[in-house]
Amino acid sequence: MLADPIKVQIPKSYETLPVKDIKLYHHPENAPEATPVIVLTLNRPKQGNAFTIDMMHAFELVYPMLDLDERVKCVVITGAGRMFCAGADLDIGFPSGGKRERLVDHRDPGGRLNLCIYRCRKPTIVALNGPAVGLGMTLGLSAAIRIAHASSKYGFVFARRGITMESNSSFFLPRLIGHSNALYLLTTGDVYRGDSKHFGSLFQEVIEEQPSVLKRALELATNIAEKTSVLAGFMNRELMWRGKQTAEETHLLDSAVLYHMFASKDCEEGVQSFLKKREPRFSATLEKDGLPFYPWYHEIDTGSRPRADTSEKAKL
């Protein structure tokens, strides 16, 4: 049985949240309140934006807000400085000494961060604006889109550090690029240019100029925010990641979801905006307009799904 959902307070501005090791920006810049595109920057440039537990806690605080805030349509993650993420901070080290948890009780911090992105109904675009290894690579595997810099080096270096895959990457990576490419990257543990064939289609776009990586991510995010339905996009990703095992089972699920969406206000708006040659104004939400049988899969409680706190004292 799933635990009762935590109540999330939606802030007026994300730029004033008390978070450590990340920074949040509205896009376009200087907007006093949340905008459709929110930029989350890993903000430890002197340490190559290396991952910390504080960074994980910041993701776990912020992402449920982004998930539930209907003002937000798309999230962009990037890194401060010229490196995206150097992986786990080796100066801090791995959890090996002192009092240890039981193996069955431990929850990989990278996996907790990764699940924040995975469970969010708003799509995330990861702008890998510079080199990334280890957790710097795996944190973006559950995102919808990844954009890399052609000549920066990227790698899944776990075997060279004497550890195994993290952040649910054994689930995501082979599904994204195939077992052959994934095995090559993990077996060598080496780093490769962003335009290397070994990454397959992991990076949907590879950009030659480093400053243009974030610029392109913001262009895509703005286009997605302005022209797509949050509910339809989320259902599409859920159907792919949490679909059925056979063609027949998939047909039954697809049919039911599509039939429900045909009657949604976002479908009506999508058709009308197309016929009238104007920009769409999508407004459907999962809570008000979602499927009566969602989730159709068995939920596993690694941390219950949040819901918005609508009480008066919840206003930040």
Secondary-structure topology with pairs:
Layout: E1 7-8, E2 22-27, E3 37-42, H1 53-68, E4 74-79, H2 109-119, E5 124-128, E6 132-133, H3 135-138, E7 145-149, E8 153-155, H4 169-188, E9 191-193, E10 205-207, H5 211-227, H6 230-241, H7 247-262, H8 265-275, H9 286-289, E11 307-308
Parallel strand pairs: 1-11, 3-4, 4-5, 5-7, 6-8, 7-10
Antiparallel strand pairs: 2-3, 8-9
Helix pairs in contact: 1-2
The CATH C-level class name of the largest domain: Alpha Beta
Q: What is the gyration radius calculated from CA atoms?
A: 20 Å
Number of beta strands: 11
The SSE order reads EEEHEHEEHEEHEEHHHHHE
Largest sheet: 6 strands, mixed
State mean pLDDT (0 to 100 scale). 89
Q: What percentage of amino acids are in beta strands? A: 5-15%
Q: What is the CATH architecture assignment of the largest domain?
A: Alpha-Beta Complex
Pfam families: ECH_1
Family: Belongs to the enoyl-CoA hydratase/isomerase family.
Protein name: Enoyl-CoA hydratase
Question: What can you tell me about this protein's structure?
Answer:
With 316 residues, this protein is α/β, with parallel strands linked by helices. The protein has 2 domains: 7-227, 2-enoyl-CoA Hydratase, Chain A, domain 1 (Alpha-Beta Complex); 230-314, Lyase 2-enoyl-coa Hydratase, Chain  A, domain 2 (Orthogonal Bundle). The protein has helices at 53-68, 109-119, 135-138, 169-188, 211-227, 230-241, 247-262, 265-275, 286-289, and strands spanning 7-8, 22-27, 37-42, 74-79, 124-128, 132-133, 145-149, 153-155, 191-193, 205-207, 307-308. The strands form 3 sheets. Strands 2-3-4-5-7-10 form a 6-stranded mixed beta sheet, with helices on both faces. A 3-stranded mixed beta sheet has the order 6-8-9. A two-stranded parallel ribbon has the order 1-11. Strand 3 (37-42), helix 1 (53-68) and strand 4 form a beta-alpha-beta unit. Helix 1 (53-68) packs parallel to helix 2. The longest helix is centred in the middle third of the chain and has 20 residues, at 169-188. The chain is globular and about 55 Å long. The model has no long low-confidence stretch (mean pLDDT 89). InterPro entries: ClpP/crotonase-like_dom_sf, ECH/Chromodomain_protein, Enoyl-CoA_hydra/iso. This is Enoyl-CoA hydratase. It comes from Exophiala sideris. Pfam families: ECH_1.
